[in-house]
Amino acid sequence: MIEVVASMARGPVFLAGELMECLITFTNPMSHLSTSASSEMLAWASAQIHCQFHASENRVALPAQGNKQDVQAESDTVLIPSRDSYSELVPIDGPPSFRGQSVKYVYKLTIGCQRVNSPIKLLRVPFRVLVLQEPPFPQDEEVSPSNPFLEEEEASRRDARPLERALDMLMATTSRRCPHMFNITNMRGKVAKFCIFKIVYRLGEDIVGTFNFSEGDIPCLQYSVSLQSEEEIQQPYQRRPGQAVSVTGHGRHLESCLHTASSHFSLPIPLNVTPGFSTDIVSLRWRLHFEFVTAREPMEPPTVLQNQSEVTVWSGAEHVDVDTFSWDLPIKVLPTNPALASYMSQFTGTNSINI
């Protein structure tokens, strides 16, 4: 028996274009009673990156090759067992890992091996891929602090690391704050002023927004904010014309706000969700979905006399005529550092098999 163990030491999450390294060990776990005749011989072994595509037959109309496709890396990815490790660039033009309602993209490292005079066995190690599909801002913009004492050789070495520069750009663009102000109104008048500090986020960040109801003319009884993703099948692949977009919720904040001058919310973006992306078949967008409940008539706040000695209990109205309306604010969700995403990954980056 030969035990094969594959371990991704850096973690199971990678950026597209990043070098993936996996330590693969082959051992013959013999007991103290075993002899040299009990040892086994490995005939061959190989490793390759696969991206497997799944589609819902009810929502996606694909060409004749079927709803399940297995796409391999273009270059040869043969493992040399004597080196103990396998390395390969994660395809930069591939889709991100995604498990949607209509489409799924699943990545795995497949290791095939065979013991002499034994059947072929496959060891699969699933991993996650994050994709930066477009530069956050122009490539020629400086994103890291300049050091006048940095020698030219070190500077050129820094510029030669595109992955690190991409992460620098990612962190820089999602760290910039540019407050956006919105007047929330319905058919009866102004309800509140809303402020959000930015609309571009990375995985793991908190979305923070504030409401100022003191500037409103219409009483707001309640509001809710939901973080939602929209999965849309591209028109050529839609099963039905005008097919509805699939909406998935990832968090909700609900608050009663009658007679409240101001309020705020904080919604975390989970580390395990997929950032926005687009392929020939599907696109994923992000938004904040707001719902408001407002009163049709003015509602006077409770009053307390200055010299009143008795305790007064104020109770709200038993019946209030209300209006409800909603509003969607598009936002951008980008990847984060793969090392950070690895902490919340469902994958361990390690797997083993006996052959």
Automatic annotation (TrEMBL):
Please list where the region (Disordered) is annotated. 138-158
Q: Name one Pfam family in it.
A: Rgp1
Q: Which InterPro entries match?
A: Rgp1 (IPR014848)
Protein origin, superkingdom? Eukaryota
What is this protein's record name? GP1 homolog, RAB6A GEF complex partner 1
Species of origin reads Seriola lalandi dorsalis
